[in-house]
Design a protein that fits this description.
Layout (H helix, E strand, L loop, with lengths): L13 H4 L5 E3 L6 E3 L7 E5 L3 H12 L4 H14 L20 E6 L5 E7 L5 H11 L4 E3 H10 L10 H11 L16 E6 L5 E7 L20 E4 L3 E7 L1 H7 L1 H10 L4 H16 L7 E7 L4 E5 L5 E6 L2 E6 L1 E2 L4
Parallel strand pairs: 5-6, 12-15
Antiparallel strand pairs: 1-2, 3-7, 3-13, 4-5, 4-8, 7-8, 9-10, 10-11, 11-12, 13-14
The structure holds glycine.
Length: 327
């Protein structure tokens, strides 16, 4: 059963690439004049993940879709055992189980998600299969894992020696105290605009280290950890998921952009909304990034220390996000 349309990678025409949105007629001299530069293709991602944004850029610069770019981009981090907050090598819950959450959203508002997925390296690709091959949006736990095997994904032990050793050390005190920008350096969220001007997003995480078994954060929840509206833009989040869920953070930011805020202003407003629910100096981190239809980007966080990657024809840079609390 395929309820989703197959993407037509080959349909980019010159006319599509050089969108008419780049140009608008000038009333006075009747010539076509560029009034605003649209930056596309472009990819942005939470944290300093150059290999991931580089992979996404390769896809985009070969006329790939934004959807393929964000999936393949975040897969780099999911497979990297040195990234202990995503995919294989992720820190386990307090019982020693690595459980993964992810979601993906495309230009037509199709979306797919998996929560509490075990033994599969690439939850983002399972989320895409949920989106494209089922009538559902979200699969959880054993059901998601069995679905992944049906789709050809292989079973793999995700708990690396390093993460296991750290978990055993943690168990000596079992003190649950997330460390800002370390345990909370958790989620890889990625947003891209392709040469056709279409937007997609992906978000993937192993969640909070040593969480209670069964805990799910914001990352697989459409509207919280990720939201895309192809008419407006996209947003994604990192940090303590509970706080992002409470304010439906990514949806909020896209709606603020719809009302005319820039991505930067919208991210700042998203953080302020969380501050307003938690008092002036919360002891946790949240970071948001956003992109609008013009390819303008923004990022903002609560605590200093969050950065995001931007890759476009203008270059490939790591941007330090401004923070509500100064250093
Ligand atoms: N932001 C990821 C999580 O809280 O699980």
């Amino acid at each position: 059963m395929k309820r989703r349309k197959f993407l037509k990678n080959s349909s980019l025409s010159t006319a599509g690439i050089f969108s008419s949105a780049l140009l608008t007629s000038c009333e006075t001299d009747k010539k076509l004049k560029p009034v605003t530069e649209i930056i596309k293709p472009i990819v942005i991602a939470t944290w300093d993940v150059p290999n991931a944004t580089d992979k996404a850029w390769q896809v985009l610069s070969n006329t790939g879709t934004a959807l393929d770019a964000v999936e393949q981009g975040v897969m780099i981090e999911e497979a990297d055992i040195n990234n202990q907050s995503v995919g294989k090598g992720g820190r386990p819950d307090r019982d020693g189980n690595v459980t993964l959450d992810a979601c993906i959203m495309d230009k037509d508002s199709n979306c797919g998600a998996v929560v509490y997925l075990q033994n599969i390296v690439h939850p983002i690709s399972v989320a895409r299969k949920v989106m494209e091959d089922t009538p559902h949006v979200m699969l959880a736990g054993k059901g998601a894992e069995l679905f992944a095997y049906e789709k050809g994904f292989e079973k793999e032990n995700l708990l690396t020696e390093k993460s296991r050793a750290e978990w055993l050390e943690w168990k000596k005190t079992s003190k649950y105290q997330p460390v800002i920008n370390i345990e909370n350096h958790d989620t890889i969220g990625m947003l891209a605009i392709d040469a056709n001007g279409d937007i997609a997003g992906a978000c993937t995480t192993s969640g909070m280290a040593y969480k209670i078994g069964g805990r799910v954060g914001d990352s697989p929840i459409i509207g919280a950890g990720l939201f895309v509206d192809n008419e407006v833009g996209g947003a994604t989040a990192t940090g303590v998921g509970e706080e992002v869920v409470r304010t439906v953070g990514s949806f909020l930011i896209v709606e603020l952009m719809r009302q005319g805020k820039t991505p930067q202003e919208a991210c700042e407003e998203g953080v302020k909304r969380i501050i307003s629910k938690n008092g002036e100096k919360p002891d946790f981190q949240i970071g948001f990034i956003a992109i609008n239809k013009k390819g303008e980007t923004g990022g903002y966080c609560i605590q200093p220390g969050f950065s995001y990657r931007v890759y476009s024809e203008k270059g490939h840079i790591n941007k330090t996000a401004g923070s509500y609390i100064s250093s």
